[in-house]
């Protein structure tokens, strides 16, 4: 019998792997509906949906491997990172879904959320005030109008699988929707700044690097307390707190 592997687990959802099948347990059926629809609409490789029995969604494992994970060493040649950039561009050029995704939050609401979170980080002694203040300034560049694109919304490198220089699939579409394309590029290169130029080369168009840097800061500032509260370690080498320190 195949061993049950816990891929990720927190209070919002749990993902298990049994052999070549991933089982995603999520009680928010609207979120699962959006994930399944996003996978059906995305013009890039996605996992096969095997069956669905709420609150469980079963999808097939993808061939290949990822380019690494946040906090770990990156793998793959520059050409592999560029191939991922090309696939991301294909996604962003597709007609966006009608619903807003994680990358499509209202700018004014996001600024308010960011300010509240920065205040909480300092008030609770989670991070030094100068580190928070500096990154809040950097994050400002992300708070601007953007052209709606089809965004994944959580495009960390652990969600993109490749076989050599070929992308075999992209997983975890629960945050997908209409949003800011540069958010996806920032999420994919978070903690792996050394490969940003490779990804942009594959993406094939000029991007505003200040906005990429801003999303690194903004995403990390908003994530730190949530990660701590859910049993993750943003202070681990190469993770969110190190990303914030790199902006100093």
Plain-language structure description:
This protein has 248 residues and is an alpha+beta fold. It has a single domain (62-246), classed as Aminoglycoside 3'-phosphotransferase, Chain: A, domain 2 (Alpha-Beta Complex). It is 41% helix and 18% strand. It contains 8 helices and 10 strands. The chain has helices at residues 29-41, 78-93, 107-123, 129-139, 181-189, 196-203, 209-229, 240-246; strands at residues 4-9, 14-18, 21-25, 49-53, 56-60, 65-66, 148-151, 160-163, 166-170, 177-180. A 5-stranded antiparallel sheet has the order 1-2-3-5-4, with no helix packed on it. Strands 6-8-9 form a 3-stranded antiparallel sheet, with helices on one face. Strand 4 (49-53) and strand 5 (56-60) form a beta hairpin. Helix 3 runs antiparallel to helix 4 (129-139), helix 4 (129-139) crosses helix 7 (209-229) and helix 5 (181-189) crosses helix 7. The longest helix has 21 residues, at 209-229. The model has no long low-confidence stretch (mean pLDDT 94).
Short summary of the structure?
The protein has 248 residues and is of the alpha+beta class.
Structural descriptors:
8 helices; 41% helix; 248 residues; Aminoglycoside 3'-phosphotransferase, Chain: A, domain 2; 18% strand; five-stranded antiparallel β-sheet
What is the topology?
Elements: E1 4-9, E2 14-18, E3 21-25, H1 29-41, E4 49-53, E5 56-60, E6 65-66, H2 78-93, H3 107-123, H4 129-139, E7 148-151, E8 160-163, E9 166-170, E10 177-180, H5 181-189, H6 196-203, H7 209-229, H8 240-246
Antiparallel strand pairs: 1-2, 2-3, 3-5, 4-5, 6-8, 7-10, 8-9
Helix pairs in contact: 2-6, 3-4, 3-7, 4-7, 5-7, 7-8
